Amino acid sequence: MTTITFGNGTIREIPSSWEELTAKEIRRIVKTYYRCMAEGKSLLEFNVRVLFYFLGIDHDWRSIVWERLHPEAAKDRDANIYMLCERCLGWLFSDGEGGGLAFSSLVNALPTFRTGFCGRRWIGPADGLTDISFGEFRRAATALNAFFKSQRPDDIDECIAFLYRPRSRKANKSGRKVRGVTPEGLARDKRHIARLAAWKKGLIALWFAACVKFVQSATIHIDGEDIDMGRLYSGEGTEKGEFAFSWNDLLIEVAKEQSIGSMERVDEEPLYSVFVIMWHNYKERKRLERRSSRT
Fold this sequence. Notes:
Order of helices and strands: EEHHHHEEHHEHHEEHHHH
Number of helices: 12
Radius of gyration: 23 Å
Largest sheet: 3 strands, antiparallel
Structural class: mainly alpha
């Protein structure tokens, strides 16, 4: 947290990273960002709105009247606000010119949503994708990658359709009580999701992209073991973090090793269970390589 001390002695603390935000704060920031972009506001205006939100300041008609009555004081205040934004909110954005939001939180700030006032409720994955299947993850990641390349709304709708599902009474192998995706139902689901507000689609895309980056490069602690995900996704001759395989390649690789079964069976398995199996197979291959090199 960042501590701010005002001239009158008031002390306030505001978040200093995405990881320190609550789900409510994440929703507010992303919604404000999309609203500012739609209204053609500058990034400074967005920063000011976020800063006021963190500090609990309302910019209402009283503020406007005060600004008109005290223009010089308002100018000094604006300069101080600009410096505070520079000092306290740099973590919101990626480095580089025109950088977007540097979203890095694994918290699913939009666990459910409805399409329309009385529409069906759609259930999203848990924080960090801990309760989705490998197949749901693989197809959603493929659709998100297609969206980043094409910017077609249909691609992001497909990504969300694999992540968010209507409720079901029966739990799947990952523990989620949601309906599965069927080829005939996917087009219908995408039509419903197309009505979702743009900022909510953006929030889901930002969060899922952060989760994908995490599972590709972080060291994850599962069942008492540290799994170096960067090593699993790097091919021979590539540096850790340079990904040589697609999700489809990994599906075929796991199925080929017969640790679980067919590709259909692999797709049904919980995502993190597949990671554990991949890590075991990786260590076994390295052990055999060391043994063969000594003979």
